[in-house]
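May I ask for a sample protein chain and its fold as tokens?
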Amino acid sequence: ISTMMAAGLPVEECVATIAATLPVCSVRGVAYSTFTIIHLLNNETAEIIQYDNPHVIVIRDYDIYDYPKTEMNIGGKKIYKSTIKLQEDDVFVAMSDGCPHAGMGGKYNFGWKREDIADYMQALVAGGYTAKNLSTMLVDECDNLYGHKPGDDTTACVVKIRKREPMNILFGPPSNRDDANRMMSLFFSKEGKHIICGGTTSSIAAKYLGKKVEVSLSFERSDVPPIAKIDGVDLVTEGVITMNKVIQYAKDYLGENELYEDWNFKKDGASLISRLLFEEATDINFYVGRAVNPAHQNPDLPINFNIKMNLVEELSACLRKMGKRIKVSYF
């Protein structure tokens, strides 16, 4: 379906083609294959086409939205079509019937009903989670209800409508000290939140702002250095070690997303950066200094200048795969 739609074919033609090829069990009268289409048009309208899957749940203004559905018969198949004008923070939850079947014969006699799933997702949406984490939480809960032995295919997809959110990261001092003020001026002039990574970098930024760096004395975790505070800056962290942890989370986020409970709730620097970049930001500007830290050039240490630059490239690549717009400026 997605291939045909990407080729520009009308939705009705795509649906008719697919519907004509989907077999139905002659004994049970149940479709062997089903589909749900959520087609976003010009960021203004959502077209929802549904065949034999649980109906898409729409959450609007943190309430369950009962959207209109038009029944159609295409190729002998009962298809439901809906057209919804989008609003900011709308959430669409699509799922296979493995979700409402979860818990059947176990915790729930008749499975986890769609309306119960809607209530569950409504509470999570109020928590401000990303679409990725919402879908992960839904599938994880289904897995729990199945006793980690799924009796059916369990698939979930969540779409969240939101405005673009810029974010700015300063990482490392400039190679030329004379460029420090220009680098700081550009960084702080940008719209959105500001994150500073690195001890020397935070000292330069504090001097530029005429503020002090206040280092936190509490260690949230042993493998990530403590954060600091500068008045006028949203987040101040250590550099290389923290960034390396963020990349670990980013790679997992793009895969199985098994570590989301680590960074979603903790308050260490890596977790805080991850929440800002993965959940809030859509457009991310990196301001990267090329200055060499003499301490990092010791061959006995696992960190060197090239590794630092590679961290920026690696994190940028991960964020692009998440659909973020990335710009990297070097100084």
